[in-house]
Amino acid sequence: MSNNIRVLLVDDHPVVRAGLRAMLADFEGVQVVAEAADGGAALAELAKLHSLGEPVDVVLMDLQMGSGMDGVTATGKIKAGEAGTPPPPVLILTTYDNDADILAAVEAGASGYMLKDAPPEQIREAVASAAAGQTALAPEVAARLMGRIRNPVHALSAREVQLVELLATGMSNRAMAKQLFISEATVKTHLVHIYGKLGVDNRTAAIAAATQRRIIRSQ
Amino acid sequence: MSNNIRVLLVDDHPVVRAGLRAMLADFEGVQVVAEAADGGAALAELAKLHSLGEPVDVVLMDLQMGSGMDGVTATGKIKAGEAGTPPPPVLILTTYDNDADILAAVEAGASGYMLKDAPPEQIREAVASAAAGQTALAPEVAARLMGRIRNPVHALSAREVQLVELLATGMSNRAMAKQLFISEATVKTHLVHIYGKLGVDNRTAAIAAATQRRIIRSQ
DNA sequence: CCGCGGGTCAACCTTTTGGTTGATTGGGCC
DNA sequence: GGCCCAATCAACCAAAAGGTTGACCCGCGG
């Protein structure tokens, strides 16, 4: 266990980068060696630091990047070795905890998933865990995943999630039927099931519920 | 004109508060005198500092607060003098630039509206402007407002925005009518107008369009 | 002063959705 | 093999939403 963890910050917000820098500076054994405003810059920084013989121990990465490469893509590329370095652990630090993002990040090879409103101590522990090769999930994130596994009664099937996604784009039953190559009757059946599982009784409320429960992501 | 601007930070994210604190510490003549994690705490801080004879010159306020009083409500209360102080200028500093939030903040009495991805220099200037009693809008925000003014053909009226917001929560026409103390007929009239302006023909598509055009925020 | 547009409401009709019942198929599991 | 469940479809009826026309009031601006 190194007692000087070298960290690369990746976040498009200068304010957040400054905050993390200040926060991590208070911790013994953690050192922010570089920053990047998007995924592309992060890959470049990793390559540069590697060529200088100053490897990075942990990447602290935001998911939502205003412009440029997003965090999931960047994580995937880092883990694929596209930065030309032995892939360092990538710790996701983001604002929202929707299912889609969490699963995508884990699939891309992230070592952990933390929320920005976490207390500093939790972030420090997560960085240390990641550096040690362990995984680190925020309690809220862990709870969400456990809830999915423990209580599948109200979990939407893959097909139903697909329906909700189309629903949120404003499509009519007929349009969804055509898009999915099924009949309107089937669409209606799916919708009834969805309403039941979400505890609502119309399509707009279903969208609101699915968004709130982070089954789909908006924006 | 004081050359030592006393600032109160209001944001629920410790990381962001740390970032702003660090960022503002680099500027001459700006001093962060207190912090609050939500609107209620902000009011309490203002009252406390006032009673200590240490008034606040500018409030830097986030809009989205995980729990507790949100930024718009807090701004309104501060401007109404509920903190027991001569109301200081309130500068909104938030992540998103949707119409609904901007209008609500301005209505509540905010002196400016900045985005968190703004460069530090812009934030410093905005704080100085607010302290001097002037208004400060981020370029993106200004552009959005100008767009509304220049091309009001497809701009929703305040009432219509209100309808869309309720719509996005999944309410039925009847429920919206009750909530707004108007008849269902009026609700339907508004919806027809909204569909026309957004170029859609049903409520779910209206929600999608309004979200995409940042007329409302999702979350 | 008069028009224009926003907000309000009513009546009427058409289309879409919601809710129910029932049925078939195919995959996974004991 | 038998059972359950997701996915598919049909028919039917009730309720909600969509669309149109016409009307009234009010404030703002030419």
TrEMBL record, chains A, B:
Gene3D superfamilies: 3.40.50.2300. Signal peptide: none annotated. The modification 4-aspartylphosphate is found at D62. Residues 6-131 form the Response regulatory domain. Keywords: DNA-binding, Phosphoprotein, Transcription, Transcription regulation. SMART domains: HTH_LUXR, REC. InterPro entries: CheY-like_superfamily, NreC/VraR/RcsB-like_REC, Sig_transdc_resp-reg_receiver, Tscrpt_reg_LuxR_C, WalR-like. Transmembrane segments: none annotated. Coiled coil: none annotated. Residues 149-214 form the HTH luxR-type domain. PROSITE patterns: HTH_LUXR_2, RESPONSE_REGULATORY. This is Response regulator transcription factor. It comes from Arthrobacter gyeryongensis.
